[in-house]
């Protein structure tokens, strides 16, 4: 992958990473501790699944 020369918010590397709440299905920021909608904690498993999905999309 080439080095970045300009940061773009739409770039797959730079845009915020998202995770799906396992309880209600809301897509939210990966950095949050809990879902903003249902207040369910975002688990490590949810985060791992989100990173795997991101890596798959990035390498596609």
Q: Could you describe the 3D structure shown?
A:
The chain is an alpha+beta fold and 60 residues long. Helices cover 27% and strands 10% of the residues. The protein is elongated.
In short:
With 60 residues, the chain is α+β, with helices and mostly antiparallel strands.
Descriptive terms for the model:
two-stranded antiparallel sheet, alpha+beta, 60 residues, elongated, 1 helix
Question: Into which percentage range does the β-strand content fall?
Answer: 5-15%
Number of helices: 1
Computed over alpha carbons, the radius of gyration is: 13 Å
Unreliable stretches (pLDDT < 50, length at least 5) are none
Arithmetic mean of pLDDT: 87
Structural class: alpha+beta
**How would the global form be characterised?**
elongated
Number of extended strands: 2
Separation, N- and C-terminal Cα atoms: 12 Å
Q: Strands of the biggest beta sheet: in what spatial order?
A: 1-2
**Element pattern in H and E:** EEH
């Amino acid at each position: 992958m080439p080095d970045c020369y300009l940061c773009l918010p739409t770039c797959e590397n730079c845009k915020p990473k998202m995770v799906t709440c396992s309880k209600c299905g809301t897509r939210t920021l990966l950095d949050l501790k809990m879902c903003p909608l249902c207040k369910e904690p975002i688990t490590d498993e949810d985060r791992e699944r989100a990173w795997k999905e991101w890596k798959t999309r990035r390498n596609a």
